[in-house]
Amino acid sequence: MTESVSRFEPIALSSESTVVAEFETDPAEATRYQSEAELEAELVRLLQEQAYEYLPITSEADLVANLRTQLEALNRITFSDDEWRRFFSTVIASASDSVREKTVRVQENHVEAFKRDDGSTKNIALIDKAHIHNNRLQVINQYEVPAGAPSDGVPAQRANRYDVTILVNGLPLVHVELKRRGVDIREAFNQINRYQRDSFWSGSGLFEYVQLFVISNGTLTKYYSNTVRAAHLDEQAKRKASARRTSNSFEFTSWWADATNRSITDLVGFTKTFFAKHSLLNILTKYCVLTADRMLLVMRPYQIAATEQILTRIETSSNQKRFGTLSAGGYVWHTTGSGKTLTSFKTAQLASRLEGLDKVLFVVDRKDLDYQTMREYDRFEKGAANSNSSTAVLKRQLEDPGARIIITTIQKLSTFIKQNAGHAIYSGHVVIIFDECHRSQFGDMHTAITRAFKRYHLFGFTGTPIFAENAGTGGAPKLRTTAQAFGDKLHTYTIVDAINDKNVLPFRIDYINTVKVRDGLSDKEVAAIDTDAARLDPRRIRNNVEYTLDHFDQKTRRNTTYRLKDRRVAGFNALFATESVQAAKIYYNMFARVQEERGLPDAKRLKVGLIFSYAANESPSEDASGLLGEEEFETDGLDALSRDFLEDAIQDYNDMFGTSFDTSAEKFQNYYKDLSLRMKNREIDLVIVVNMFLTGFDATTMNTLWVDKNLRAHGLIQAYSRTNRILNSVKTYGNIVSFRNLEQETQDALALFGNKDATSTVLLAPYAEYFGEYADKVTELREQFVPGQMPVGEQAAKDFIALFGAILRLRNILVSFDEFAGADILSERDRQDFQSVYLELWNARRGRQAAERESINDDVTFEIELIKQVEINVDYILMLVEQYRAARGDGEDSEIKASIDRAIDSSPTLRNKKDLIEEFVDRISLDEHVADEWRAYVAAKREAELMRIIAEENLKPEPTRAFIDAAFRDGAVRATGTAITKILPPVSRFGRGAGGGHGAKKQTVIDKLTAFFERFFDLA
After folding, report:
1. What is the mean pLDDT of the chain?
2. Which positions fall inside the Helicase ATP-binding domain (predicted)?
């Protein structure tokens, strides 16, 4: 049935669909409004047209009174005043509850057993999740939280006025923050962070119930859960002033889209779809997930669309009695890294609630059942998951009428079917969902299931479907492709979609030639070189290992640190994929030998691990051609030499980490899980593998795959995709370093699993293309401009900004290529001189009026950010100071001092600190540690300059210190609110004397403290 919504065009919505089938933007919408106030008014108007009730609420008392009215209506109850006071103070606004407890209350504990005045008990629901249209939606805007609003006796830091808030049964569950068109959408994101820090907790803390945030500048609109915001704030709180900002919170915000994955970015289209009443209520009640760590995840549109397609297929095929056929099931193609496990399990959970179903079996590979995964499954559905290797627990669950959803492994289900012929469950109405439909399920396993079960629906999730083009040659002819095994493709989200949406990272691939062919050799002879003997030659292996060690720090970004959980780590880790067990053994020995020969101390050596097993069903022809054979936890099938070697490698691991694993069945499984956990925690640097870890293994800390192995089609995409999980702003792409020529295989795989244009989206261009363009632009720069000299005239300045900005963008890409080392045609000195001019021009324009700023070329803003990414920092300056101090022992080295000056002038954040650094350089002693002396020097200068400002402006010393400490903690000087007024001396608010009165005094102090803050922030 199509739902008609008044006053705008229907957009192919059914009464049940959360994600619209296809959305077409109305071009006329783009000219309706521009200012922030008009944007807000338009949003409120559209919500009212969609049957949201508008409330002119201005105070917390009004908000609380409305909440009481809404909950009374929802629960068909009238509270006495005493009952309401007790319910509100103990359940809704308990002083001990944080955002986390309030989130749990909305997501899981939304029904409260409340004891009434007469002693009876009444279940009070905050939200009706069974019948979503019983919930009432209201909208408020410009709700103001006054400064000083108390919470446990602690005043709010400043007054805040919130843009637009959606109330569900009176509770603020969705908040919208708007900025006018043309303003960076991140400003809205940062504004919400300030609200949470300053005032969401104020008063009764009702705004801590917000589950979803929406940010928009009219043109671009995104949404995210309260956990994204909370994680961002938590990282800010832990981050020291000297640490670089690596928060990736904004990267975890999501675009809304239709079922074809077309993003709906404009606020009008977003409002008509995301804020359609049934869509919003479905998202809040069905498509949010609370993890075992109490993190709230909100599903993305492609995840929701796939889930609803499966639920619809179950219902329609059941109505038509098509049980046990391909038309009763289907498969979902969501690219690797897009969150298939969350989607598939949420689908299983929702399917288990459908009427008429007896069981939902959620089937995973046992290698994926690590401790964290088990916790999450158990959190989703208490008691559903078990890791017992026997089938006794599975049999008991299948026979328990109360166990609606069961998580099991492929192996246990297969064993159960073999041991329990004629079991009653086979006649039950069953949904079977495969978390990752591997090719192994197309054979005996698939046949066993379809023969045993009678009334079933079979669904598979995969990031790399098997098509005719990449199907193997073995097995049953009718079960060679994903569609043959599971049925129709129900939803698609390709690698191109994921990269465009920034849900995964692009790849950067280096092809390393490892075999030089003598002149005159024929093509046939060249092909003949490609044999095991040549590939496993110790000379070639040594070259590959030495190359890996020489470039490991560069590829894994070991010169950059970031926060991982509660510790700071340097860079990322990697896998090394080999073609065979024999190759893995040779590489493992060679890494140990070369590191030993280099005489590296233990602290400097890479921690190298090794894992492989016997693949019982491996197809040598398929594995050799790059289709990744299915590896199991079986070590018994290994030959004696290989098993002994693996035993020794595991003992090396035990010595490294104080563990006690070996190759026996259970301990080897535990070794796999421990190794995968240490990869995820970045405790190990490099793991040598054959096929293990190349499919299904996710570690966000891994960014590089070294490849000496044939890969193609789905095997190639799966292996490459180990590297491109989003972690933070330091990790910008997945690195592939291939010692085989896989260029054509890569192009073919991307064409198969993306689209015909995939290569231009997924991969960076070859080095030569970037360098050629870079060389042309550097030549143009030298012809038109002189290093260190300002361009003459406005047009020349604009031309310089555009040209040098393009050079910076290209250089930022080129520095990641090995070939660029030592090949830069723009000298360091000239680049710094040009960059100093560039920054000066930018700073001059930044001070102009907003209208003038908006007219500047878009690249300027982008490239200023680029400079900040690659800027000269304090550590670099101190390195130069070390050199300078060493040189001073034999007399001053003026060139090093000039290098320091140029580096400071070319750095956006060090320019206003130049005098501090120069004075430090002049006074540096010959026997003190530079870093310690620098810290002491900065502390003394900071104290002296703050005391000078306090004296000059007659400020209150202790409040001023507290004010500036808060600025360094929060990363900004607060120019509004009451904190600034508390540090000022008594001044008439109405004075018109030379000083200009209170307002002028306040602005003078703000300007001085801001300059002080910018001068000393990040200087440690």
Report:
1. 78
2. 321-466
